[in-house]
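On clarity, I found the account of how folds are encoded harder to follow than it need be. Since the whole study asks how a given chain folds, the encoding of that fold should be made plain. The format is easy to grasp once an entry is in front of the reader. For illustration, here is how one protein appears when written out as sequence plus structure tokens.
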Amino acid sequence: MLAGFYTAASGILVQQRNINVIGNNMTNSQTVGYRSQRVMQSTFEHNFLTKYEDGKYKYIGEGDPATLVDEVETNFNASSLEDTDSPFDMAVAGEGYFNIRGENRQYMTRNGIFNIDEEGYLVLDGVGRGMGESGDLLIGGSDFTITKEGYVFDANNQYLDKLLITRVAEGSELKKYPNGMFSTDRANIVDDSDIYQKTLERSNVDMNQEYTRLIEAQRNLQACATALSTVDAMNAKAATLSSIA
């Protein structure tokens, strides 16, 4: 009976996490450059009763079919671009991320809703200063131009810097933060992506898929809750019969 408890309870926990992730995707469906996420499920049998050796998993025993969240994967597929009227709006077409120097770390993001601070630096509000390859990008005002290659020129057509566009280096760790922010311990500069000014990249959240997955997760959660109640009732009945005997 305990195995039944673990199976049903683990299913409830996984589906609750799934619903939370789906809800976060739906909340950020209008967040510029946001990348949708998906819960990847595994089982205790796979995690606890196999071992990884010589490049492959080896089976070492049987276990309960209880599930757990293996990881939350991010969908990095590009989304559509939308024209705007603001010279501070930018989008990356192709591989790569804008770089933002935050208070405690350097972030990578596809969110290109930039602004200008009181000192004339390019900023992503609430996060930090936008970066060029030479450091924090000083643009001075709203009359500036960014070429397709990412070169930045002021109102007098004087070269200022080149936008720092990077990708995660192979084998390095990627950390996720709210609102489409990422950080990594090692990144490589990207030179072959196109930069568009007065343009923003939409979120890649597909609301039709999210609604479908939400309904499925809610039904699975309800099924697990029903199963847990059934197991509890069976245990109670077994305890009663045992006391009578």
Q: What stands out?
A: The radius of gyration is 25 Å. The longest helix spans residues 207-244.
